[in-house]
Amino acid sequence: MLIMQNATSGTSVGKALISARGISKAFGKVEVLHGVSLDVHAGQVVCVIGPSGSGKTTLLRCMALLESPSKGEVVFNDTVIADAAGSRAASQAARAIRPEIGLVFQHFNLWPHMTVLGNVIEAPMRVRGLPRAEATTKAMALLEKVGMADKADRYPARLSGGQQQRVAIARALAMNPSVIMFDEATSALDPELRQEVLQVMRQLAQEGMTMLVVTHEMGFARSVGDRLVFMDQGRIVEDTDPESFFTAPSSDRAVRFLRQIQ
Ligand code: ADP
Questions:
Q1: Does the beta carbon of 234 sit less than 6 angstroms from any atom of ligand 1?
Q2: Which of 25, 69, 93, 155 has the smallest count of CB within 10 Å of its CB?
Q3: pLDDT score at 63
């Protein structure tokens, strides 16, 4: 799909693959997201950054259908997949669309009682109904891609954090998702292990994977992201191209944030 970037606002013209439309989210009486709208277009890498507690993870979890919005809706290819009312139509659509959304979490979340290969073939067999042989062939190709084919028979406990996260990425890819969402995928890793995971993410981006990436990795956001979304206090404060954000942020809040992390 041809994406045109609007140079001033960073918003993209054309149809979005997945969108948050006016999403608010309250936990109890406390609203932590206040009417957030975000479009992710096919083939785009959208990086979400901001101070701790600004609502990045909550936004991602709403778009990934792991939290229900208190207001607003999530739309996938023109179909509402989550709304504040929890309507039957949205719930039905969500069931169909959920496998299209790949997820990679901070804490890997591999099944400890399954081997690396077992982790990657489980969902394609159970959810997509793939025969074991087919699922295995595909899984081995994906493990090759993330550099983990030689560890296919190992259990997660015997792998480093970086290796586990690469398996988690292969597991997400095994479902042929339309979009992969990364929630601070490198935050739990030692610096030397982060690079191997970032390298896999960089490769996916180069291959045209649609990605929503909540991250503290400013280098990645700057060099790989197509768009940079800066959040503060439950709102999107800037949605722009990464280079403009890092060289000339337009909000005082972003200026302060960048100063703090430098
Ligand atoms: P970020 O990812 O930017 O660090 P989060 O989305 O994790 O921010 O959190 C935003 C706010 O929502 C924080 O104040 C956090 O404490 C609160 N919050 C997140 N999840 C929950 C929850 N399940 N219950 C109550 N409060 C939550």
A1: no
A2: 155
A3: 97
